[in-house]
Amino acid sequence: MARYTDSSCKLCRREKQKLFLKGAKCYSEKCPVEKRAYPPGQHGLNRRQKVSEYGIQLREKQKVRRLYGMLETQFRNTFEKAAKLRGVTGENLVKLLERRLDNVVYRLNLAPSRKAARQLILHRHITVNGGILNIPSALVSPGDTIQVKESSRRLSVVHESLQRTRGDSAVPNWLSLDKANLSGVFLAVPERTDIPLNANEQLIVELYSK
Q1: Which of 35, 90, 207, 210 could cross-link to 201 by cystine, CB 3.0-4.6 Å?
Q2: Which range has the top average pLDDT, 12-21, 36-45, 186-195?
């Protein structure tokens, strides 16, 4: 399975903003984005400042794709699936991304980042409705229960992530978290206004529609 193996900080620098791809380390470490606020590479400082319309659309797509930790083919397939659904394509895309199992585990604060959530899922530490599901891209449906497997409940990464959770506000209103049982319920597909994603998905729609 193809995956990105280079430095996560390079992705943040390329988008010129923190994407929080390393979880808690993004808060504790001196972020390279703050020290070098320009794209990586030997020509980073010399790149032209004026960006075309296509360039703006591309950067928005790359930002969202990297936030959710997806490669291009997988992201494009998700977009095409969103385009076939009723409603606004951009909103459908974001809703599908939020329904991914790795994202739900991250939103429940059972993992410090989406990358860590994928590790937990691939290593068979997560169950959905009582059965092990080791596919990070699997879509969660309303009413599904996501839980850390019984034999994996001593994992330090899970407890350290939950310790940073303060109050119910740390979990989106479309999810319900039970800290004692290391589990959560996907209550409903969220509306776009309820999703904490700082992105203009319409630019992605315009890019793929060309």
Answers
A1: 90
A2: 186-195
**75 CA to centre of own chain:** 12
Q: How many CA atoms lie within 13 A of 19 on its CB side?
A: 23
Find out whether 148 and 154 touch, Cβ atoms under 8 Å.
no
Backbone angles phi, psi at 132, to 5 degrees: -65, 130
Q: How many CB atoms lie within 10 A of CB 75?
A: 21
Q: What is the pLDDT of residues 121-180, one digit of tens each?
A: 999 999 999 999 999 999 999 999 999 999 999 999 999 999 877 654 589 999 999 999
For the whole model, what pTM was predicted?
A: 0.80
Domains assigned to the chain: 8-97+199-208 (1.10.1050.10), 101-186 (3.10.290.10)
What letter represents residue 48's amino acid? R
- Check: CB of residue 42 under 8 Å from CB of residue 89: no
What digits encode the pLDDT tens for the residues 33-76? 555 555 555 445 555 567 789 988 998 999 999 899 999 999 99
Helix, strand, coil % in the chain, rounded to nearest 5: 45, 10, 45
